[in-house]
Amino acid sequence: MNLFKLKTNIHTFKTFRDFSDEFKIGSEDLIVCSESAYKKYIQGDAAEAAIIFPKKYGSGEPTSTVIDKVIKQANTLNYSRVIAVGGGAILDIAKLLVLRDLTTAKAIFNKEMDFHKDKKLVMIPTTCGTGSEVTNISVAEIKELKTKLGVALEELYGDDAVLIPELLQDLPYKYFAFSSIDALVHAMESFVAPKSNRYTKMYAAEAIKLIISGFQKLLDNGKQLTIELLEDFLFASNFAGIAFGNTGTGAVHALSYPVGGNYHLAHGESNYQFLVEVFKRYTEIKPEGKVSELNCYLKELLHCDDNLPYDALAELLSEIWENRNLKSYGMKDEEADIFAEDVIKNQQRLLSNNYVQLSKKELSDIYKKRL
Questions:
Q1: Domain-located, residue 4
Q2: pLDDT tens-digit profile of 260-269?
Q3: Residue 67: inside a domain
Q4: Residues in domain Fe-containing alcohol dehydrogenase-like C-terminal (predicted)?
Q5: Whether pTM exceeds 0.70
Q6: Rounded CA separation 292/227 (Å)
Q7: CA separation for the pair 75, 283 (Å, rounded)
Q8: CA pair distance 45, 23, nearest whole angstrom
Q9: Which domain does 237 fall in, by range?
């Protein structure tokens, strides 16, 4: 029985220039990044590299439309290494560009093609949430289906992940909040997943501790994102990525995809909607086992005397960023059953990682609680 793997080499540097000096960016590199990151951190050290700015084709979460246009541009370029510098959207798009004979996003996410990796991949996150730099998963909104789909392939693992805290200094507070809550979701879902074990729980537990203690420091000292605190959150995201890269994520992510796809919420924002409700439901259905272990750990970190830690957790997270109800985004009552059906139909890859299985009615009830 395989317990754990980490296929990606992990590096850290103080600055992008330090990274560039060691990795020798040149004419055979393709850099995928935002225009603002390129101008501020990259352009002086990457004059010979080809560049793609995915946001030129559309902002927000990755969509099949944007991916198709990025693929079309990449197919005009000659490169042997992809260097991705960005948040989860950019990293998830860049992963796909290491594959040979790319055509469309639909062909990738529906697995209508053969997958062969023929380029190196270097992943540099500029947020503290996705953990995408160490996973083999890419997620996109498929416009034709009005939902998000993920694909997990061995070929999508990065060869190198590079952590550079400097690159998080310009992260707006809203995106810091949602990305760090996203990392917390990754760690908690991994901790209770069927495939979790001593190795994955070690990484997940450290990620949970860093994130919750970091939030507590922010509330105690004011919401000032120092470079030292950003480094903690960056490593917490990476630890959570290592954990869920081995175990998968579950119902929180599955529930979030129809909402994110229909109402265009950021990934961390839509995950935030369901974190507390899913774990309350897990505890109701099967209070013993891994969820009991997690609950005890959360109570210790939150200094919580309640029987369950989830009201205290919700209170802490609401101090970091308000968790709006789903109606405020436009979701209608009748969509609870529709979205639950969508989850059952399209998200079995995620539902198989649940702590306990949830029925269509139970999924619908969670949506209704968040309305």
A1: no
A2: 989 988 889 9
A3: yes
A4: 177-370
A5: yes
A6: 35
A7: 49
A8: 11
A9: 173-369
